[in-house]
Every structure is written in structure tokens, then in C-alpha cells.
Design goal:
27% of the residues lie in helices and 15% in strands. The protein has 340 residues and is an alpha+beta fold. The strands form five sheets. Strands 1-10-6-12-4-2 form a six-stranded antiparallel beta sheet, with helices on one face. Strands 9-7-11 form a three-stranded antiparallel beta sheet, with no helix packed on it. A two-stranded antiparallel sheet has the order 3-13. Bound molecules: 2-oxoglutaric acid (AKG) and fe (ii) ion. The site of 2-oxoglutaric acid has 8 residues, from strand 7 and strand 11. This is Phytanoyl-CoA dioxygenase. InterPro entries: Phytyl_CoA_dOase-like (IPR008775).
Length: 340
Amino acid sequence: MSTTETTTQTAEQVSSLHGFGRMRVDGTDRHFGDFRDALTRDGFAIVKGAIPKGKALEYADAMYSWLEGFELGFDRNDPSSVQKDNLPILNEKGMCLHYGLPHENFVWGVRSEPGVIDAFEKIYDDEDLIVSFDAINIQFPNRTDVPPNTPWPHQDQDPEKHGFRCMQGLVNLLPNGPDDGGLIVCRGGHLLSEQFHKEMADEERIPAWTPEWYGFTDRGMKWLEDHGCKWEKVSAEPGDLLLWDSRTPHYNLSPKKTQDRLAIYTCYMPVADATQEDLLRKKDAFDRRVGTTHWPNAKHTGSNVANRNGEDDPHNRLRPLVDPVLGERAFKLTGIPYIK
Ligand SMILES: O=C(O)CCC(=O)C(=O)O
Ligand SMILES: [Fe+2]
């Protein structure tokens, strides 16, 4: 169904679809004529040029400047300066969670990009959305100073809650080819998720700090393989938006050649799917400039206090370097205007 057709539906039809509207990307045979067809079928899709390439490179530049701004020795033009002592704390998967980074103005700039918001408005057939205050991904090639980033295949959704619930996204900021690290997805795995969890209910659980995460064991991986699932690397150009259903098994890898990988996670959901309690918790996270998981309903909120060598990082900061300046559209994405 095209967006034009959607907008010709009566308000009643639209509101009855709300919450079920998500069915539109849940394996139906409906034809959208855009990226939603791939999302429905494969569980992932690329929106090419969601942000103009030049602008994406400007965001990448802002991210490098943010890293260099710690003045710890990292220099974007000197690969030998990629050492953990020269950088803020990044885990081996490339995540940077602290230092107010989820609320830096340039991060909010990406979240507020019309091409990114538009994709999610189409997915949910809803303009009243909230956005996650997600971590940022910064991966450098061939690091030996952090543990190896071995595959960590997972779903970001509670295995006991079936059906489509949350679309995940990231904006890719640098050229990202087959060997440049980044997102690896299991094509079509979202549609097998319910069957998987029913058949594999007795499988041991990889410990997870949130119920909205499920890690695949070797047996789980074998099940996916036996059911014809293939893993593939999603390649992208600067400004491309990568989307995947939270049920789609996935992980990331680190770059292997010379190209860094920079990405900003951008996940949106209808505000109608959040409770007032969620929105209050989300407001508190915004006010304290802390992060959330990929889930925009802010079930879990983070901290700005990074740990370096077993102690609070002396370079911690509790607020972004450049506090976000939010336009009206972006402010709605915080959920705050929807608090009654
Ligand atoms: O960095 C990526 O491409 C994926 C990250 C991811 O799966 C996660 O943070 O849950
Ligand atoms: Fe994930």
C-alpha cells in the first residue's frame, strides 16, 4: 500500500490500524513499492541517502572532532593514535554510551533529519513518534588494544513477546563496504522468530541484562542454518539509513582494512506504544542527558559515568559538550510534549 492510499483512509481506519499498522511490515504480502517491501520480506532494508552524503560526512567530522576534543592523543589522521588511553571509553563492539554523547547536538541533528524521520513515519503510518537516546558506534580497524569483537548474534526483543514490536535503525556516516565492519543480518530470520522460540524454548539462555535481548547459542545458530537462513553484511554509503526488525538476528563486526566505521543508532516507535510512566522516565533521561537502549520507550536508562581501569574516568562529563538545540519536530521525539 502506498502512503497516498494510506492517507485516504478514514481517521477511524487509521486509528484502528494504529498498533496494528505495524502489521504492514510483518510478512504480509502487501506491496508498498519502497523500502518497506524489503523490510517486510527480509527483516532489514536500506534507505539510500536518507541524509545527503555531504551532510553525513559533516556529522562524521563532528564525531571525529568530539573524539579529538578529549585531548587524549587521538588524531583522526594517525591510525597509530587509536589506543584506548587516547580515546573516551568505547567497548569492543564500538559502543560509546557515556559522556552525554547520546545527547550531543550533532547526534540530535541526525535524529532530527527529515529523511530519517520520514522513513519511520512510513513504517508506523504515524507521525507521533518517540526516538531512542541510543549509543553511538565508533569502530576502528584492526584494534589490538581491546578484546576482539567476536560475533554476538542476537535479537533486541523479548523472545516471549512475538510479532513485530520495534524497528531499529542506524545512520551510516562513512563508506562501509564488505570489509569495513558494521551490521550483519540474518535474512528473513524475523519471520521464523516465533517458531524458533517455541521449538528452542528449552535452550540455555545467554545472560542478558534486559528481557528485550536474546542471544543465539551455537545450537540456535544451527537451527537458523537448518531453516535456510543466511547471514549477510549490509554495505552502505554515508547518509544511508539501515533498518532492521528487532526480531531479525544480527550483530556487528569491526572493520578489517583501513576504513573506520561511524554510525548513529536511530530507533523510533509510536508514542502511543509508550505509557505515561515510560514518558516520564524518558523525560528524566533527557533532563539528565543520559542514554537509553535501542528501545525508544526508555525501559532502561543509562549513565554518563564511564569507568576507566576500574575507576570513574577522570574525563567523565555529565552534560554534552554542545547541548542540543531542538526544533519543534525534534522536541516531540523526546516524548515530553505528550506527557499529560
Ligand atoms: O552496530 C550495529 O550494526 C548493530 C549493533 C547492535 O546490534 C546492537 O547494539 O544491539
Ligand atoms: Fe542489536
